Amino acid sequence: MRRREYSIPIILFVVTLFTTTAAGMLMMNPDKISWLNFTRGFAFSLPLLLILGSHELGHFFAARSHKISASLPHFIPFPSLIGTFGAIIKIKSPILDRRALLDVGLAGPLVGFAFALPITTVGLSLSKIVPAAYTARYGIKLGNSLLLLLLTHLAGRVAPVGFDLMLHPMGFAGWIGLWVTSINLIPIGQLDGGHILYALLGEKQERYSWAFFILLIFLGLFWVGWFIWALLIYFVVRIKHPTPLYPSIQLDRKRKIAGVIAILIFALTFTPVPFK
């Protein structure tokens, strides 16, 4: 690879490590900014970047295994609540058939989920149950997915009436990781879920994508972010998935099972109202 192809990703990673660690520092102790408190922010930034980076590297290595040219992961630093807009890779050559399409689309969410699951579990065990009045003043209400509800019960962190669960920064990183997994698995257009759905169903994918697009607009009544996401999908991601060069090549049984597993992961991690 040319120097530029790996120097820019490294620079972006270092900057994103700084911005996400700063975000983690503000979660740990927003009233005292110091080098010691900054290093405590690693409890948030390192697990978050591990989830996001493993997701994109899953895409990268799956693409390379099919001789598809792809860039290294590019992290996007941004001074926000979590310090980043995520990470992306760029596919530089056509995807030839549905087998490659499923492998590349599935590898990212599957690998990212494999890291997010234990990180969330450990993060929940480190989280504290606090009075609801405290979280109303200092916290952000986060929504639950089916998987998060199950993990919360298994960790013994179900808050009684009048109390809330205050997530440890590692738990928040895991929550974001599971949410990002579900966002990518939305079965529309050129999202990972759209790749997987097209690999499984071919041209029938479009009708299901339109159905889920309408569902997103309906969910926008409960969280306005879905309206914005629906607009981005319609004008940027697109509803219809492009046809690979050799669409007639069918999936084998193992890939079909893997696609069904991806749909199950999406159902378990999807959060209808992420922020309240």
Overview of the molecule:
With about 280 residues, the chain is mainly α. It is built from 11 helices and 4 strands; from the N terminus they run αααββαβααβααααα. α8 crosses α11. It is globular and about 60 Å long. The model has no long low-confidence stretch (mean pLDDT about 90).
Distance between the termini: 45 Å
Give the spatial strand order of the biggest sheet. Answer: 1-2
How many strand units? Answer: 4
| Arithmetic mean pLDDT | 92
Portion of residues within helices: 55-70%
Radius of gyration equals 19 Å
The largest sheet, given as strand count, sense and whether it forms a barrel, is: 2 strands, antiparallel
Annotation field: number of helices: 11
Task: Pick out the low-confidence regions.
Answer: none
Shape: globular
Q: Decide which structural class fits the backbone.
A: mainly alpha
- Percent of residues in beta strands: 5-15%
What letter string, H or E per element, gives the SSE order?
A: HHHEEHEHHEHHHHH
Oligomerization state of this entry?
A: single chain
Task: List the topology elements.
Layout: H1 3-28, H2 35-40, H3 42-65, E1 74-77, E2 84-88, H4 98-126, E3 128-131, H5 132-138, H6 146-154, E4 163-166, H7 169-184, H8 192-201, H9 205-219, H10 225-237, H11 253-269
Antiparallel strand pairs: 1-2, 3-4
Helix pairs in contact: 1-3, 3-4, 3-7, 4-7, 4-8, 4-11, 7-11, 8-11, 9-10
Describe the structure using short key phrases.
276 residues, mainly alpha, two-stranded antiparallel ribbon, two-stranded antiparallel sheet, 11 helices, 4 strands
